[in-house]
Amino acid sequence: MINGMPRSALFAFVALALSCNQTPTSVLLAVEAAPGLPAIDQLSLNVYDDQGVVVDGRRLPREGEPELPSSVVLFPDRDQGELRILVRGLHDTDVVGEGTTRVTLKKGQQVRATVTVSSGRLPDRDSDGVPDEIDNCPDYINATQGPCDVDGGLDLGDGPPLDVQPTDADLGPDLPQPDLNCDVDKDSYLSAACGGDDCDDSEPKANPGATEGPAGSASCSDGLDNDCDGDADGDDSDCIACTSDGECSDGTICTTDTCVSGQCVHSATNEGKPCSDNLCATATKCAAGKCDGKPKVCPTSNDCKVATCTVDVGCGEVDKPDGTACSDTDPCTTNETCQSGSCVAPTQSPSCYVDGTCYDDGDKPDACRVCDTAKSQTAWTILSSYCYISGVCRADGYTSGTCRTCDTSASQTSWTIKSGYCYIGGTCYQSGASGSGCDVCDPTQSATSWSAKTDCGIVLVALNEGHTGNLGGLSGANSLCQTQATAAKLTGTYKAFLSTSTQDVVSLIPSAQASLPVYNSKAEQLYSSWTSVFGGSGWPGSVTIYSFDGKAVDEGTGASPAWNDADCWHGSTSAGLVSTGNTCTDWTATTGSGAGGEIDMNQMMTPGETNLCTLYQAVICVRIP
Length: 625
Hints:
It is built from three helices and 36 strands. The strands form twelve sheets. Strands 29, 30, 31, 32, 33, 34, 35 and 36 form an eight-stranded mixed sheet that branches. Among the domains are: about 5-120, Carboxypeptidase-like, regulatory domain (Immunoglobulin-like, Sandwich); about 190-295, no CATH class; about 420-450, no CATH class; about 460-625, Mannose-Binding Protein A, subunit A (Mannose-Binding Protein A, Chain A), CATH 3.10.100. By secondary structure, the chain is mostly beta strands. The chain is elongated, with a radius of gyration of 38 Å. About 5% of the residues lie in helices and about 30% in strands.
């Protein structure tokens, strides 16, 4: 965290008491979900301004699960400038979606902004947790979003308070007092401590651009490694009279090395060709006799290190001076400083960091939760005699409805279903209660979904909406039946009540089970047996067929598309055999005609009933016992 009090303490989320002539500067932030966003159980809010973090991981809302779309009013502690906003969607603490926006404040006005949370993580090429769209330093790790500090070249406008000389040619990483001087000898080459390649930053005659040699010159007897090649004076090949070209190799393919009159001459060659002898650059190519490319960005292991790079070794790091302010990974510590390359905080009492706020050991946000650092420093600990469910404290033994209870021995974060009950689709059922014709509450099998009855009859259920004769073939119709049955938490196998050129609908049920009764989804008997479906009779006028979502198959009951005249497709004769030429080309076309039945006339197999395949009619599904 930043030194001192977290800046989020200065950011209000509730309306302030103002005099009649005062209008607060505020932001009305709308949060929306993009299509395809997975289920989330928490939103977190981060806000940054030009000085860094303003709000750090604030939970929205403070209690319970979020509902999208939603909105929140932000009251910043300033009335001008830009805010950068990041909203994350989380599920079980994992980030499953992100959205960002930028907003410019207007003094005394409320401005509107919208963040759309999309599935997955947004691009973040420096991996500092701040998406590139709002990162003030997208190529440099800067999780605190302080002034962009990319020192090692010309000043980039870091500005006070960190850069004490904001208009000079930058001397190095911004430190409180003063900047680390990266070019003491003012030879325009940065020291190794600042990521440069100057081998002696106290001597302007020694740098990678200087010349050492030829033999007999002053540079061969001054005791310096003038050209920073690792050899000085008589040990440098340029100070020794050569006798052959082989003595003049400088180790790069970017020069042709020859011996001319006892002196090594290095002539540029291979211009523009790839080279590999500069470990401080990427995409390197020969240019004017040197292996050059885009400067490599070297990482650091913590906030108390400065990245370095040398052409022959590559990236490294050195310690920042002891006493330099830093930020460790614990958001609840303050006044940290660098000590021997590590970020160290003064001794402080243990604390919890929950929902973007630090709490002392023993702090309680409500009657049943406490900061207990012995158990967790990142989440509230629920007191042993309570449950905390959907944002509400419940005492052990508290009962919700007839079948759910807080049982701390079983779970402190979810309801426990009482023995002898099922809780399905928001309703309590006693053991043995029926769902659809073949579903039953059996807690010994499942307390949260229907179980299949043994020796159950046959069940007819309609798809939730009308369909034309193009159902994607028989396989497509079967898939629709099974998918909607599963969504309705019904057990068993469901297939479409359809005949095709390869299937007679009567054969859906084996002859050994054809004597079983036929029910609707409310366990009301339609036929005394499967065989009687094709016997020319209907069902009692007091019952009908229902869809998977509970609508009676009739006109005006809310199906969309609606069921035309409450008719259904089946492509069959009254005996359950295929009606040749009346199957909408085996349920793949909207041309031609299809045979069907009239549900509102209480019978499936209406003799001679056909309709155009363009019409939307009911599709009946059969639960296979």
